[in-house]
Specification:
With about 450 residues, the protein is mainly α. It has one domain: MFS general substrate transporter like domains (Growth Hormone, Chain: A, Up-down Bundle), CATH 1.20.1250. Helix content is about 80%, strand content about 0%. It contains 18 helices and no strands. The chain starts with a helix and ends with a helix.
Length: about 450
Amino acid sequence: MALFKEFKVFLSYPRNMRTLLITNFVYASVLPVIWAFVGVYIMRNTNNDVGLAMTFTMANYTGLLIAFCCNGFLLRIIPVKYLYSLGMLISGFSLLVMISLKDLNACGIAMAGGLFGVSMGLFWANRDYLALASTTDGNRNYYYGLENSLGTLCSIVAPITVGWFIAGSQLYGWFGGDRNHAYFYVAMSAITLAFVASCIVCQGKFTNPEASKFLYWKYDPLWYKVLWMEALRGIGQGFLVTAPAMLVVKLIGGQEGALGMINSSGNVILMIIFYGIARLTLPKHRIWILFTGLGLFVIGCASNMILFSATGVLIFVACQIVAGAFIECSFSPVMMLVIDILSNKEKRNKYAYLMNNEFALYVGRVAGGLLFIAGAYYVSDIFALRYILCLVAVIQFCSYFLCKKVLATCKVMDAALTDHELRTEPHSIADVASQEER
């Protein structure tokens, strides 16, 4: 009965919003596989070279930024839902390309990483725009809370299933005991799920953004605060694609089954927490959701630094999973609120802000990645994984203070807008009736 009631709540939201949530639920089974096992595959096939693993990450983020830029022009001629579908499909094929490489050298890894980045750029550029266009500030807590809850459900099943499937190829002699053959079947499964998700999103009735300029050099001062927030978040993301896999290889012997178990442990509770965020929280609670996420990430990194053992990895990955979703549930709605306000004030295409935001994320990601590479090559990879990771968590925590300022400014701007509306309200009875009708 309770599930039926919650389903009715889901059905009360707009169709496009529901279509996006279902699409993201299906594709959520692909993302954990990509993020969890790409790093381990590279490490296993390059003699644990953390530099090559980070090369993949940097190429990935570069391809992502290029795709964001190209997507702005493509939106003028191609429906947004088709570009979104294309991004999901290419992500599966990029895994296949990397697995097909006979020699995982720096050039091959950079090529695979760049292709994967292009797919993620098309995916996230259009996913963010569709989320922005299909939601309002009042229902974004529900949207991101439910999206993360459904994503967590997939992360319970997908990593542990794929992890033990890959580990079983050697343990039970499947495919002649060759793990790389198991990776091939995982990639084919990812392509299949991406195709299903593409078919679902094509059922939505989405409209493209207005075909206008989307590259600007000057913005309102409020937007620069958001860019600093995103850059700080990017510094943390520069580590998180490969750092968990590196820690598993270094401290848990590179067992993909163990990595899958770590990613799945505790996710049932996490799923309930996120659904609680979706149903019970209001926009005013976002700053506390952010504080919780950033704090958990610091705790996880500090535990890894102090213990630097299998137990430390378990605590770190558990905290990272929870923190990442908490941060997403708060960052994205705040950014979209600012875009709603400023696009109306500056009369600009909303995609222009998403594009500019991606530049800030890229700068942060590259800074985090270079910080890790410098620590790994000039000191040691152990130093980078143990100490620099904790430093990054502390730096990223500063975004909490920026977020408080951003929300305070938004409140002032909302009050000014309300005052303007009151001062320009209609005076005739006919005008009042017309406004109420609108």
